[in-house]
Specification:
The protein has five helices and five strands; from the N terminus they run ααββαβαβαβ. The protein is of the alpha/beta class. The protein has a five-stranded mixed β-sheet. Strand 3, helix 4 and strand 4 form a beta-alpha-beta unit.
Length: about 200
């Protein structure tokens, strides 16, 4: 007996039978455990910033991790479908800046306390520099989302692409498939859909 459609995806004939399989749970737990490492080493590092500083370092904060996140049109309670996992993160960068001090002269009569040690070391009209030092300054910040669909197998590549493209109408974010079946990787990539191989964690 065909179950009654509860979401728009199901009305289109897409019933996600994967959710009922023990292997789906197995992949979910594996991905949840390895998620942060995969994000930081394979996904965040590919983010391009407009600014070009050297040296520069990234600062990444995972804001939200939602399993089985409902996809809803604006101002509507009608569910389009469910994304297996949605990640929200705040990405920014810091760049190095060198702070240099002016020349300290021994005839100066007023000065900040931070100069005291330098002034005390100046003798007989000699000039002394305070050593320059480095600080990290904050650059621009971006809040971004990523969506992940877990599959135990891919029975129909057309059906999978239709599912992702339907979600894309309502959520602007990169999509990745997490699966051990690598048969359709090239076709998915051609459609702008990423692929994470289970259980290696490689992005293909």
């Amino acid at each position: 007996m065909i179950p009654k459609a509860q979401t728009y995806q199901q009305k289109l004939g897409f019933f996600d039978e994967d959710l009922k399989k023990p292997k789906h749970d197995e992949i979910m737990y594996w991905f949840d455990k390895n998620l942060e490492n995969i994000l930081r080493t394979k996904i965040f590092r590919n983010i391009q910033y407009d600014e070009d500083y050297s040296p520069m370092r990234n600062v990444e904060i995972i804001l939200e991790k939602i399993w089985e996140r409902p996809v809803l049109p604006n101002n509507s309670k009608f569910i389009i479908g469910f994304i297996d996992l949605l990640i929200s993160a705040r990405l920014s960068f810091e760049y190095e800046e060198i702070i240099e001090y002016d020349i300290l002269e021994d005839n100066r009569t007023t000065y900040d306390k931070k100069y005291v040690s330098e002034w005390e070391s100046v003798r007989k009209g000699d000039l002394k520099y305070k050593e320059p030092y480095k600080i990290w300054k904050k650059g621009n910040t971006m809040n971004l989302n990523w969506c992940f669909e877990i599959k135990t197998e891919i029975k129909s590549i057309g059906e999978l692409i239709r599912q992702i493209n339907t979600y894309r109408e309502y959520i602007s974010a990169p999509f990745f498939i997490v699966c051990s079946d690598v048969t359709h990787v090239n076709l998915l990539k051609a459609q702008g859909i990423g692929f994470i191989e289970y259980p290696s964690g490689k992005i293909l």
